[in-house]
Structures are given as structure tokens and as C-alpha cells.
Amino acid sequence: MIDRRKILRDGLAGAAGLAALRPGRLLAQGSAFAPPAALTPIIARSDRVFRVTVCLRPFRAAGPRIEMEQFGAKHVVHHYGHGGSGISLSWGSAAEAVPLALATGAREIAVIGAGAIGMTTAITAQRMGAKVTVYTKARYPDIRSARATGSWSPHSRVAMEGATNAAFREKWERMARRSFAIYQSFLGLPGNPVEWVDRYSLSDTPFEKRPHTPITMPNGGTDYFVDYEELVKDLTPLQQAVPAGMHPFRAPFVRQTTTLMYNVADYFHQLESDFQLAGGRFVPLDLHGPEDFSKIREKTIVNCTGFGARDLLGDQSVIPVRGQIAWLLPQAGVNYGVSRPEGELAIYVMTRRHLRKARNITQNPNVSLVVPLPRRLLWFLPPATIQLYGRAEIVDWTDEGGTDVFRRFWMGRRILSGYRGFHRRGETRICFLKITPDPVIHTYLVGASIWRVRKRLESGTAIVVIPRETPGG
Ligand SMILES: Cc1cc2nc3c(=O)[nH]c(=O)nc-3n(C[C@H](O)[C@H](O)[C@H](O)COP(=O)(O)OP(=O)(O)OC[C@H]3O[C@@H](n4cnc5c(N)ncnc54)[C@H](O)[C@@H]3O)c2cc1C
User: Fold this and answer.
1) 441: number of Cβ within 10 Å
2) How many angstroms is it from 127 CA to the middle of ligand 1?
3) 20 CB neighbour count, 10 Å cutoff
């Protein structure tokens, strides 16, 4: 039997998938050098994907929250909401947050959270002379930061234009430059926690600055992600066109640059051991609300809970922005990254034109879908759901986008081959329903704590905004 829910799920995952690629070699150009050695082609097949991680960027339209709030006797410096640039901005962001904590006069500081922001905050506070304890419900690898791509992306999905001003722009630049400088101190360490790698971008059309894509906001209005690339472009080498014959890619336009990459596992081991070597301590603690700040001994606390701040403080300004990575097996000789501009996200259903769902779409292309996500554990509870609205169209069954999505998974290949059989026997009505979802997607119970939902049903709802732009941090 055809499992259409699985097709939807896998189709959605496949269409949104990104490959996490590892690191680089410099392309030598110029008359003094022989042409560069050929690059080893990447074997990017779905059977070599050993892990797929889904994790949402802790995004705030106004950018990261870095400010002090008083809770009874506790001084709490909030430090969360870094969107798709948390690892990249972390050191600079910590340099803004830690002085606020030290200004209370405290020399013993508590940090909540052991993600990229918590660990860099803790180490920065130690370097400024404080004794630091990290209270956290999870450490590497059970943290969201462990699922990041790990590239230098300080301007990726960090804030919206309409919610920020010139002062934020200046602060962002300060944070980015400070972080970049600190990252240089990790180069050459054993395990290569941070390294420079080559990146190739491929395109079917000449590269040009792409126009800003408007994003539909949860309130229905539109806004744009801030675009600060120009402010720090002096930090990294310029992109260069790579002429045909100098690269192995099947693309008419290729550009190359060299960028910083964090090898997330080595980087987190380095952060944790640096922190502990400087006398830092981890204390397991799961806080359920601001009243739990009283469980922490220190009077001054830096709250680095990332997306967790939404539940902890009821802060609805933190919203999840999509993120998914398919991890390819490491491959000898592949030490560079490659990316293509992303296609539009679409969901494909294979069917026949005379059936009711296809006929309905001809009359009204506006569709809504509820996709249940079955649970492996706690199967007796209601499933988490993804609720999508979008526009549907009927496209031919040979459509490249649709067949490409189905070819990527076992059941999809079975379905394609079944329909090919029908076609050979004379069936001419085979088609794909192509659904292009609205950027605002509603979810229930996805990534939400069952424990919290038990107490407050509405805490299970969330909105995910799919930005239509190129992949990055
Ligand atoms: C797919 C994807 C790719 C990305 N790629 C990049 C990239 O290439 N470069 C880049 O710079 N950024 C990237 N990002 C963004 C980056 O991962 C985040 O901005 C960053 O990880 C946020 O770090 P954090 O420390 O704030 O959050 P987290 O890593 O979520 O850490 C939060 C910590 O707080 C703890 N915590 C939470 N709630 C509580 C509570 N109630 N009680 C106790 N402890 C609590 C957690 O256990 C955890 O230790 C990417 C994100 C995604 C999703």
C-alpha cells in the first residue's frame, strides 16, 4: 500500500535537505603555479547519509536578547536568541553580556546552558576573573548547538530589518569582529576545532547579488532578514570565479572562496575542557520557570538557554526558524564544501488526474494539510503535527522536481516504478500534485515538552517561518 504520509514527510525532508560537508584545499591560480590537482568528487548519495538532524534556529526578530532583568534577589542577564549565527557570533556576544553580569559586583557567576552561547559566556567570564558554574539540563552532544552546520555565518537569520536599528547594526559588527578574532586562536589546535576550508558555489546562471526575499511574518506582514554581509566582507577572502576546466563540477558558473569552519565535535570538546581546566563546574539542573532561579546559589546569573528561553520565560519572541542537515559519510580526499542555490520547497504527491483530490485542486488550488508525525516512544499520546497551507498544482508525472524527490527514498522508488508499470499498460492520467507551502508553518507538539503541555496545552504550539533564500548557518 502507498503510505502517502510517509511520502509527504520524506518528500518534505528531501526537498529541504542540506548536505553537511567537510573542509578544504586552496585553489592555486596564476602563472607561477601549475594548474591545481583535481578535486575528488563528492559521492552524495542517499545511502551514504548516516544521520539526519533537525533543529530549529532560536530566532528573534529584534536579534539576540542581551539585557539584565531582576528576579527577586537574583540579577539575571538574558543572553539568547542568536538565530542561524549563534556559533559565529558567540564570542563577541559573550563580550557584550559578561560585563553586564560583572557590573553587579559579583565574582561568582552562574551560567544557565551549555550550548555555544553558554560555553563561550562561561569561558569569557572566567577570563575576566570570575568563578563560574554552568547549570544545565543537557551538555554536548545533547544540545541544539551540536546540530549546526558549523560554518562562519555571523549574518545568517539573525534579525529582521523592521525590528532593528542602526545601534543594533553597530553592535552586530562589534560582535562579529570580536568573534572572528577569537576564532583565530583555535587554528592549528589538535583535532582542528576550527579551520579554513574551501567552498565552491555552483549556479546555472551568472552570479549576481540576489534581490532580498520578503519573509511573511507570523502576524501576516512582511519583512526582510538583515543583510550585513558587506560590513565584514574584509575578514574573509573574496569569492573568485573558477573558469571551466579548472573544476570538476557540472555547472556553467562556479565560484570559490575560503571560509572558517567549526568542526563541532572537536570544538565542543575544546570548549568544555578549557572551561573545566580553568576551574569551571557543571551542575545538572532543569529549570521550569523563573521561580527556579532561586535553586541557583549564585546571585548573578547569565541565562543562555537558547530556544529553551521560550518555555522558561514564556518568551514568545523566540521563534524556531527551520534547519535540517543530512550528514554524509566522510570520504578520503574530500576536504572542501560545495553548495548550490536552493530550489523552492515543495511537496509532491503522486496520483492520477481523474481522482477526486486532483479534480478538487483544479477547482480550488488553496490547500491545507495536517501531517501527523508518529511517535516511536509514547505512542499512546496524540501525534505531533505539522499544519501547512499552500497552493497546489497538477504537474506531469515526468516532472524533474517530483521524480527527483521520489528517487531519494526506497518507498518513493517503488512508487515510481509501480506508476511506470501502469504507464506501460496505457495509463495516461498519472500526475504529481505539487504543493508549494506558505512560508509560515504551524506545528503542535513538535519539539515541545510533554510535561509542559500537560500543564499548559497551548505551550505545544509553534510557528516556523521558512525563509526562501540560500542555505547557510
Ligand atoms: C540546521 C542548523 C544549522 C546551523 N548552522 C550554523 C552555522 O553554520 N553557524 C552558526 O554560527 N550557527 C549555526 N546555527 C545556529 C546555531 O546552532 C545556534 O544559534 C546556536 O546553537 C544557539 O546556541 P545556544 O547556546 O543559544 O543554544 P543551545 O545550543 O540550544 O543551548 C541551550 C542550552 O541551554 C540549556 N537549557 C535550555 N533550557 C533549559 C532549562 N529550562 N533549564 C536548564 N537548561 C536549559 C540546554 O540544555 C543547552 O545546554 C545553525 C542552526 C541550525 C538549526
Assistant:
1) 22
2) 22
3) 18
Cell 563560574, located at residue: 132
Query: C-alpha distances in angstroms, 180 versus 144, 229, 272?
Result: 22, 14, 20
pLDDT for 25 beyond 50: no
Which residue puts its alpha carbon closest to atom 21 of ligand 1?
A: 145
Average pLDDT over every residue of 242-256 = 87
Q: Does the C-beta of 116 come closer than 6 Å to ligand 1?
A: yes
- Encode pLDDT of 396-430 as tens digits: 998 888 888 898 788 999 999 999 999 999 999 99
Q: Is residue 358, in this structure, part of any structural domain at all?
A: yes
pLDDT, tens digit, 9 for 90 and up, residues 137-153: 999 999 999 999 899 99
In a domain, 380, yes or no: yes
Please report the DSSP string for 203-242 in residue order: ESS---PPPPPPEE-TTS-EE-B---GGGGGGGSPPPEE-
Residue 388 predicted with pLDDT over 60: yes
pTM of this structure: 0.76
Residue 401 domain flag: yes
383 upstream amide cis, omega within 30 of 0: no
**Residues 295 and 220 occupy one common structural domain:** yes
Q: Please tell me the total count of domains within the chain.
A: 2
How far apart (Å, rounded) are the C-alpha atoms in residues 199 and 21? 10
69 shares its domain with 11: no
| 109 shares its domain with 206 | yes
Instruction: Output 150 or 30, whichever has higher pLDDT.
Output: 150
Ligand 1 contact, 92 CB (< 6 A): no
What are the backbone angles phi and psi of residue 8, rounded to the nearest 5°?
-60, -45
Highest mean pLDDT among 8-17, 35-44, 165-174, 193-202: 165-174
Question: Which cell numbers hold the place of 223?
Answer: 519583512
The helix (run of H) or strand (run of E) holding residue 440 is: strand 440-444
Q: Is the CB of 452 under 6 A from ligand 1?
A: no
Ligand 1 atom closest to the Cα of residue 119 is: 25
Nearest CA to ligand 1 atom 38: 308
Give the range of the structural domain holding residue 9, as residue numbers without chain letter: 4-16+344-465
Q: What angle do CA 198, 81, 471 make, to 5 degrees?
A: 30
Question: With bands split at pLDDT 50, 70 and 90, how would you rate the model's confidence at 394?
Answer: very high
Angle at 459 between CA 457 and CA 461, to 5 degrees: 95
What does the pLDDT average to over 247-258? 88
pLDDT digits over 334-374, tens only? Answer: 888 888 765 667 889 999 999 988 899 988 998 888 888 77
- Tell me the one-letter amino acid at 58: P
| Three-state secondary-structure class, residue 196 | strand
Q: Which helix (H) or strand (E) holds 423?
A: helix 410-424
Cβ atoms of 390 and 438 closer than 8 Å: yes
Whether 154 shows a pLDDT value over 50: the answer reads yes
